[in-house]
Design a protein that fits this description.
By secondary structure, this protein is mainly alpha-helical. 80% of the residues lie in helices and 0% in strands.
Length: 256
């Protein structure tokens, strides 16, 4: 899943470097048409090559069994807190660098692209690390502490020279994207094969709700205070996620 999840920052990096010149040469409509064409190409490729793995169908348990699993609620809640930091950085780093620090759209997007490239490696490395450790939750919690520290550093350096600030933002942004594969794998393993689809579906719903709320909340916070305050407050979220995930037993999320 770390390798599979690496495709998301790969797409993000490609979008960050391609969309500004496309929009500049055409219009916002041109950028949207370009994205629509990519979606169509991906759908066509999937229809041609993706198939279910041959074998016996897994036994399926009723969804309410999944929803009564306290461990899944804890895992989804902790993951949602991590996502808050990810939304604040990936969704607003370009706006911050352009509006507050004077970079052009292309320059600010390039910073996001670099962070996405690092995130590709980190997602794969985190998955490999968790496989070797035969654990999901412990690596996931350590990643949360790393996100917290990096985001605090970025908040402190908001007004620092760009040569110092940009590497700190790249570090914080790439770390904020590291956890996804670990979280999804842990959800599937907690539930077992009979409930893995429902478990990941519930977790994804939780993350969608958090993402829906996090973006406007962060924007309103920055508007009412400052970018430094916004980043500092968001740094608390992964720290809270680290604490919440500590409520899981050591064997939860471990390979079976």
């Amino acid at each position: 899943l770390g390798l599979r999840q690496a495709s998301l920052p790969l797409g993000g990096a490609l979008a960050a470097v391609s969309l500004p010149p496309i929009v500049g040469a055409t219009s916002l409509d041109g950028g949207l048409v370009f994205l629509a064409a990519l979606c169509f190409a991906a759908a066509l490729a999937g229809a041609l090559v993706l198939r279910d793995h041959p074998g016996e169908a897994a036994e399926v348990e009723p969804a309410p069994w999944t929803l009564r699993d306290r461990r899944l609620w804890v895992l989804s809640g902790g993951s949602g807190l991590y996502l808050t930091a990810q939304i604040a950085l990936t969704g607003f780093i370009v706006l911050f660098l352009h509006d507050a620090r004077g970079l052009s759209n292309g320059e600010a997007a390039a910073v996001l692209a670099v962070a996405q490239v690092f995130a590709i490696g980190l997602r794969i490395a985190a998955g490999r690390w968790s496989d070797r450790a035969r654990a999901r939750v412990r690596p996931l919690r350590l990643v949360g502490l790393a996100i917290f520290a990096a985001l605090v550093l970025a908040a402190v350096l908001v007004e620092a020279p760009l040569v110092i600030l940009v590497p700190a933002l790249v570090l914080a942004t790439s770390l904020s994207m590291t956890w996804n594969g670990l979280s999804y794998t842990a959800a599937a393993e907690l539930a077992g094969s009979a409930r893995s689809g429902a478990a990941i579906g519930f977790q994804q719903t939780t993350l969608s709700i958090v993402g829906f709320l996090a973006a406007p909340t962060f924007a309103a916070l920055v508007d009412a205070s400052s970018w430094r305050t916004g980043f500092a407050v968001c740094a608390v979220a992964p720290l809270a996620g680290w604490w919440l995930l500590g409520q899981l037993a050591p064997e939860d999320g471990r390979d079976r």
